[in-house]
């Protein structure tokens, strides 16, 4: 007798597997719900029940994912579905009769109960042993399919995350490589520039000696004296240009120390007030009420403030004011702003103003702001410039706060 039952179970299993396999072939590329719907249709015919509904439970929410009916019709059995999940969670014996339906839990290989199936339209006593076994196998197949689907979704999500990280890391590495290549290129350019400047300075020294000799000659004709003055002016401008090119081409080796921003600006202001460009201008310094410290190179930061204040003084007339303010808009950085009136900078010039050798001044070298930006960036900061008719020109220097 026992051998006959086992043989019947084996035959039934083979029939069920063949039925499921044929559906897999037909619906190989379809969504999980479509596959389970068609399987439910076949199984409902095998067990001769009117409704077969598959429910999954996630975070106390029940959802119908498949049925031999369409979803709208299956949704009418909400109370029944809630009761099914309640019984599944209570681990009730599903082979006992509940009204006119039978339910079976969906249990994964790991023993996790993820939902249940319920078959309607027949009393429990009307189900044969083979039909209950068919429903059990359907529940097992459904749980496995859902579990595999979830694992596949997790795998795809993980794969997508890994791909995204790889792309991001590749971009970062490319940026770093580009910076290294640029730094190596700039280092070579710097070495070449230093050697060229050295040669030019040697020749310029001889020219300077000749100019100094002729400047001591008395009773030079007027046209010769004018040319001599022009030569002296150009010689000084060339010396200044060579010095700035040399400074710009060298790497910024910062001598970092913890500095108080207000104190640093006050020391810089004492130097600026002695410059010829500041005479007749009103420089108003507005410090931040509390001390703010940064890590920086005091000499190089003074250099950028002197350069920026010189520009601001040259942009305004006698009696006009320049506002130098320290703000603390964010806990991570301090903002130092220098504002002046005068003619605003055009949008075209504003986009190029920090580029090397671009200048709006007749006698400018075009390296002042380029050097300023380089020093600010070496400190991990930002240089921002705004200019319009309403507020004039404002230069912002943002520097990281010391931690």
* Helix percentage range: 40-55%
Order of helices and strands: HHEEHHEEHHEHEEHEEHHEE
- Ends: how far apart? 83 Å
Q: What does the main sheet amount to?
A: 5 strands, mixed
Class per helix and strand makeup: alpha+beta
Mean pLDDT: 79
Oligomer class: single chain
Total helical segments: 10
Strand order of the largest sheet: 6-8-9-11-10
CA radius of gyration:
42 Å
Q: Uncertain runs with pLDDT below 50, 5 residues or more?
A: 17-29
> What form results from the Cα inertia axes?
elongated
Instruction: Give the percentage of residues in beta strands.
Output: 15-25%
Quantity of strands, as a count: 11
Provide structural commentary.
By secondary structure, the protein is an alpha+beta fold. It is built from ten helices and eleven strands. The strands form three sheets. Strands 6-8-9-11-10 form a five-stranded mixed beta sheet. The protein has a four-stranded antiparallel beta sheet with strand order 2-1-4-3, with helices on both faces. A two-stranded antiparallel ribbon has the order 5-7. A hairpin with a 2-residue loop joins strand 8 and strand 9. Helix 2 packs antiparallel against helix 5 and helix 5 packs antiparallel against helix 6. The longest helix is centred in the middle third of the chain and has 87 residues. It is elongated.
């Amino acid at each position: 007798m026992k051998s006959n039952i086992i043989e019947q179970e084996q035959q039934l299993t083979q029939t069920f597997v063949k039925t499921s396999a044929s559906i897999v072939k037909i619906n190989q590329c379809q969504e999980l719900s479509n596959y389970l719907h068609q399987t439910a249709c076949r199984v409902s015919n095998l067990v001769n029940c009117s409704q077969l509904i598959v429910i999954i439970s996630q975070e106390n929410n029940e959802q119908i994912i498949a049925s031999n009916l369409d979803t709208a019709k299956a949704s009418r059995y909400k109370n029944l579905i809630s009761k099914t999940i309640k019984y599944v969670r209570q681990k009730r014996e599903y082979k006992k009769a509940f009204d006119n339906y039978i339910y079976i839990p969906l249990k994964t290989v790991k023993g996790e109960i993820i939902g249940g199936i319920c078959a309607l339209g027949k009393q429990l006593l009307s189900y044969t042993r083979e039909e209950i076994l068919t429903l059990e196998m359907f529940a097992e197949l459904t749980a496995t399919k859902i579990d595999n689907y979830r694992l596949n979704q997790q795998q795809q999500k993980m794969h997508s995350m890994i791909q995204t990280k790889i792309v991001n890391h590749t971009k970062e590495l490319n940026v770093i490589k580009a910076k290294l290549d640029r730094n190596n290129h700039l280092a070579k350019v710097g070495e070449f520039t230093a050697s060229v400047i050295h040669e030019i300075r040697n020749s310029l020294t001889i020219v300077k000696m000749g100019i100094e000799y002729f400047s001591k000659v008395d009773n030079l004709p007027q046209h010769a004296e004018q040319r001599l003055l022009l030569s002296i002016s150009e010689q000084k401008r060339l010396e200044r240009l060579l010095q700035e090119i040399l400074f710009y081409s060298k790497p910024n080796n910062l001598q970092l120390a913890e500095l108080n921003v207000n104190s640093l600006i006050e020391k810089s202001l004492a130097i600026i007030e002695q410059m010829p460009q500041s005479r007749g201008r009103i420089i108003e310094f507005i410090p931040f009420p509390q001390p703010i410290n940064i890590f920086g190179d005091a000499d190089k930061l003074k250099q950028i403030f002197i350069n920026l204040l010189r520009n601001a003084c040259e942009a305004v007339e006698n009696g006009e004011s320049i506002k130098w303010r320290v703000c603390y808009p964010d806990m991570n950085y301090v903002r130092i702003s220098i504002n002046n009136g005068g003619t605003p900078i055009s949008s075209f010039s504003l986009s190029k103003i920090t580029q090397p050798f671009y200048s709006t001044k007749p006698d400018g070298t075009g390296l002042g702001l380029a050097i300023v930006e380089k020093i600010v960036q070496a400190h991990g900061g930002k240089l921002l410039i705004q200019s319009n008719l309403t507020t004039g020109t404002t230069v912002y220097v943002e520097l990281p706060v010391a931690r």
